[in-house]
Specification:
By secondary structure, the chain is mainly α. The protein has helices at residues 17-43, 50-59, 66-80, 84-96, 112-124. Helix 2 (50-59) runs antiparallel to helix 3, helix 3 (66-80) packs antiparallel against helix 4 and helix 4 packs antiparallel against helix 5 (112-124).
């Protein structure tokens, strides 16, 4: 075989493009997982907060047992009254409910004034 002096032998060139390709695929995979996680967090059903549970308990009170209802309004209303207006309304309602608490015998049902105060208090609450 004749050796030609003008042509150089094949030289191996270091090439890292395959590693860059794998790194890019891995980063795209991680980005896809991150997007799926964000979508899952955004669209999953939200758990009820404690405030929502208290608000539902106040909405679904049994007004046949007046004494227990007065205690429940005092208990859950205290937790939910956070703004100045609702705190003031709760204090008024709580003072009106003193006739129905801490006594052995209580009237059979709430008077209209307490029902009105309760309704106004429930309207003033901002539960999210």
């Amino acid at each position: 075989m004749i050796k030609i002096h003008d042509i150089k032998p094949i030289v191996e060139i270091p090439d890292i493009s395959i590693y860059l390709y794998y790194a890019m695929i891995f980063l795209l995979f991680l980005l896809g997982l991150f997007v799926l996680y964000i979508l899952y967090k955004f669209f999953r059903p939200k758990a009820k907060t404690q405030e929502k549970q208290w608000y539902e308990k106040l909405q679904n009170l049994d007004f046949t047992d007046v004494k227990q209802t007065a205690y429940d309004i005092s208990k859950y209303g205290r937790y939910l009254a956070k703004e100045e207006r609702s705190i003031h309304l709760f204090e008024e309602l709580s003072n009106s409910l003193l006739d129905y608490k801490y006594k052995k015998e209580v009237p059979k049902e709430f008077n209209n004034e307490i029902k009105a105060k309760y309704s106004i208090f429930m309207d003033s609450l901002d539960v999210r």
